[in-house]
Design goal:
Oligomer: single chain
Largest sheet: 8 strands, mixed
Strand content: 15-25%
Number of domains: 2
Low-confidence stretches: 139-155, 212-219
CATH superfamily of the largest domain: Acetylglutamate kinase-like
Distance between the termini: 28 Å
CATH topology of the largest domain: Carbamate kinase
CATH architecture of the largest domain: 3-Layer(aba) Sandwich
Number of strands: 13
CATH class of the largest domain: Alpha Beta
Radius of gyration: 22 Å
Order of helices and strands: EHHEHHEHHEHEEHEHEHEHEEEHHE
Shape: globular
Mean pLDDT: 81
Structural class: alpha/beta
């Protein structure tokens, strides 16, 4: 039974809500969400489209500077909420707006406060409508997701929706876009491209050709694949489907209710999309705290470790000591999240650092007995990252 669903509507689906065609499509999706909501499921809606709607209202061109995009987002967000609020009210559903930034996830106290607030709203049958707070999110964020990610920002709502789904213990994440799933290649240019119906292991997506992004949004298929990876590790089912099709959301819920697909096939012929199954948490459980460390909205710095330290981390479950670090980049404070990378630049994990960047730079490559002499009372523990505050990506394989 579906208890909690995160639905993400992409820019290509929302487009310009003031346009009659887009308005009809978006209202139809709201009607489907209301129908699912009446079935007692808790729903969190992550929406794109503010920039596109604001650009239309301000009569601005396609090519925008960062500041212009932020202005469009501020105007468009108010417009977008006007439509959502009115349409949900017609179903006697209360909606609420949440504009989030990276720090709302990377700062643990703010994350816990956010989680509690969302839990309270869901308990009161409110539908939270979530978007990134673009007007104040001027800095491109560091990559999130799994090792090898090439993402440059949290700043597309695919990843935001996956973080919300994983951290709020959702059963299902539905990514609604303008294509009906993930293909082996771009179906617009490759006639041999085939749609992946069921993906049982997120690592199967690593070979998918997914370059490019949408015209109206900042994401693309790459960001949707990264989102599916985050959700999968968090124990959440993900469906990627087209918002241009009729009854797409209700068909997703019906497909989920028919049971987990087997042998690459779903149980319903009228559902079209890609279904990515969650990683088995029973086989390799990952605590919520470590999920937060590994999938917070980014990291504040990078610690490059030597091969000996890498082996100690991966093979012996050791903590990371300053003696194993050969380079530091970025500025960070104690308890900030940092990325651990090997000498080839491959990310091997994430951790909560125990020293600030200036202190750690002073003891770079030093052994434990030397650290107390250099830092004195400034440090009470010799580790740079303790094993309890560390998640390694090989733990997720």
């Amino acid at each position: 039974m579906l208890k909690r669903i995160v639905i993400k509507l992409g820019s290509q689906v929302v487009a310009n809500a003031a346009d009659p065609a887009s308005s009809r499509r978006l209202r139809n999706l709201v009607n489907q969400i209301a129908s699912i909501h009446r079935g007692k499921a808790e729903i969190l809606l992550v929406t794109s489209g503010a920039v596109a709607l604001g650009r239309s209202a301000l009569r601005m061109s396609q090519k925008l500077s960062t500041t212009e995009k932020q202005a469009c987002a501020a105007v468009g967000q108010a417009e977008l909420m006007h439509y959502y609020r009115r349409w949900f009210q017609s179903h006697k559903i209360i909606s609420a707006q949440l504009l989030l930034t990276a720090d709302d996830f990377s700062n643990r106290n703010r994350y816990l406060c956010l989680r509690a607030t969302l839990q309270e709203m869901l308990g009161r049958r409110v539908i939270p409508i979530i978007n990134e707070n673009d007007p104040v999110s001027s800095e491109e964020l560091k990559p999130i997701g799994l090792a090898g990610s090439t993402a440059s920002s949290f700043g597309d709502n695919d990843r935001l929706s996956a973080l919300v789904a994983a951290k709020l213990d959702a059963d299902l994440l539905i990514l609604v876009t303008d294509v009906d799933g993930i293909y082996t290649a771009d179906p617009k240019t490759d006639p041999d491209a085939k749609r992946l119906t069921v993906v049982s292991d997120y690592r199967e997506l690593q070979s998918v050709q997914s370059q490019g992004k949408s015209l109206l949004g900042r994401g693309g298929m790459t960001s949707k694949i990264e989102a599916a990876k985050i959700a999968s590790v968090g124990g959440v089912h993900t469906m990627i489907t087209s918002g241009l099709a009729k009854a797409t959301l209700t068909n997703c819920v019906r497909a989920f209710g028919s049971g987990t697909p087997k042998e690459g096939k779903t149980h319903l012929k009228d559902w079209a999309g890609t279904w990515i199954l969650p990683q088995s948490q029973a086989e390799r459980p990952i605590s919520k705290r470590k999920q937060w460390i590994g999938f917070s909205s980014g990291y504040r710095g990078v610690l490059t470790v030597n091969d000996g330290a890498k082996r100690a981390l991966l093979e012996r479950g050791a903590s990371l000591l300053p003696s194993g670090i050969i380079a530091i980049s970025g500025e960070f404070a104690p308890k900030d999240i940092v990325s651990l990378q090997d000498e080839r630049g491959d990310e091997i994990g994430r951790g909560m650092v125990l020293m600030d960047s200036k202190s750690l730079t002073r003891v770079l490559g030093k052994r434990s007995q030397e650290i107390a002499e250099i830092l004195g009372a400034q440090v009470t523990r010799p580790e740079a990252v303790h094993r309890d505050d560390l998640i390694l990506f090989n733990e997720m394989k």
